[in-house]
Design goal:
single chain; 327 residues; alpha+beta; 4-stranded antiparallel sheet; 50% helix
Amino acid sequence: MSIILGCIFGFILWFAMRYLVAGIYTVAQNERAVKTSFGRAERVGNLTTLDDPISDSLNPDQKNRYVYPQVRVIPPGGPYFKWPWERVRKMSIATETVNMAWDPEDGSANYNGTMLDAVTKDQLNTGLTGQIRYRVSERNLYAFMFGIKNPYAHVMGYFVSVLRERIANFEAPAALNEDGTPNSAAVIGISINDLRKNLRDLNEHMDMECQSSAARYGIVLDATLITSIDPPPEVESALAAINTAYNQVSSDISLAQASADQKIVQSRRAVEIETLKAQAEVEPLVRLAEQLADLKRHGPEALRAYIRNVRLSLFDKAHQVFVESKK
């Protein structure tokens, strides 16, 4: 009898340790957890990702394809408890950085994950290097954990396809003069040079285009940083020569424009000076005319007195005076 009681007590103790005590768990600060019951994740009612703002960046066709249920996310903390038929899947949501040439399925691809190839608009095969900062989306854990077999491969493939499409169709914005007219000196027509000069615009475009990655694959691309764009070695010297010639032409054009602007400013200044001289000569006559008109308004005697005083002042300054006499 004691053996049977011992076996029962041992089984109860084993069951408590195996399924009850072991059912207590915690979630770290940089983690989120999802609980499954018989393999099914706990849902938030009938809500889907279409009810979340992360799907706003999807077009109607994509909204029909990327529809995932919203699951109940367990926040950091604890202790929490799970029953024996339940499982807890934890996922880190910390931000990580990888080379944008990284291939999750083939480590030797893209020059061992160091450089990405892309074809420019003028059919030059160029190499790109840079980094991607990403994190797992807490608002779409179902897609990352259950909806996609390898979400990293999907999001990297999506990023590379968008980047290559942008490189193949990139056109630099037209440079404008101060008056808004196109600056012909800034047009060079070489896509690699345009890309190098507009890396910031290229990075901003990639960030905007990849906003839908959270709704698609459950991964948020926080930032894209393309650091360099290198042409093939066989065209590097030719491109350097073209850039040197272009810089020389631009310098000559700038000097010519500066000289022309200086002459225009000098001409304007000369016109202003001559105008002021003419005004200085005309102004006393205008004042004299105003003074005479004012005297005339006070009567003919005032005007005669003014003329007499003027004559007297002239006689005082003259050395000789010739007076006409009537015979």
